């Protein structure tokens, strides 16, 4: 199955501060995407904390570094969300919207004022995108690959990231 074409507002998502994971957890998430028959290409699994319209990496790195440490990220389900144009369905792992997430989002909104596209805390929906499929092809998605008990992501770290097509993180800036 090939990834669906979607009208994605790239200009609003040029860079981000995201939670990123270690190599073992990345490998698990990529394998899950592949086993589910989601052709998402190469991607860096992540939870976007904030997308921004400018690639001001020094400012993003400082904002990421100022966030408190998060010891774990709890995955609590799967979402299948159609895009606004109806061309594709996004497949995501939900993450719990904890107090840490809300506080981190508030802190980033304040630190990056002026370069985020009118974002807020209420609309923040933390998740890990596994892929997108053409509308009408959900029957081809192997949902049996989703474990009954999703793992806990340990020691995620906040990082400044460059984004590419579909909001994929294409580079983590260390």
Q: Considering the protein shown, what is the CATH homologous superfamily?
A: Cyclic phosphodiesterase
Residue ranges: pLDDT <50 for 5 or more in a row?
1-10
Radius of gyration: 15 Å
**Proportion of residues in β-strands:** 25-35%
Number of domains: 1
Strand order of the largest sheet: 2-1-7-8
Question: Largest sheet, if any?
Answer: 4 strands, antiparallel
Please report the first level of CATH classification, the CATH class: Alpha Beta
- The helicity comes to 10-25%
What is the ordering of alpha helices and beta strands? EHEHEEHEEEE
Q: How far from one another are the termini?
A: 34 Å
The helix/strand class is alpha+beta
The number of E-state strands comes to 8
Overall morphology: globular
Question: What can you tell me about this protein's structure?
Answer:
This protein has 174 residues and is an alpha+beta fold. The chain has a single domain, classed as Cyclic Phosphodiesterase, Chain: A. The chain is built from three helices and eight strands. The strands form two sheets. It has a four-stranded antiparallel β-sheet. The chain has a four-stranded antiparallel β-sheet with strand order 5-4-3-6, with helices on one face. The longest helix is centred in the first third of the chain and has 13 residues, at 23-35.
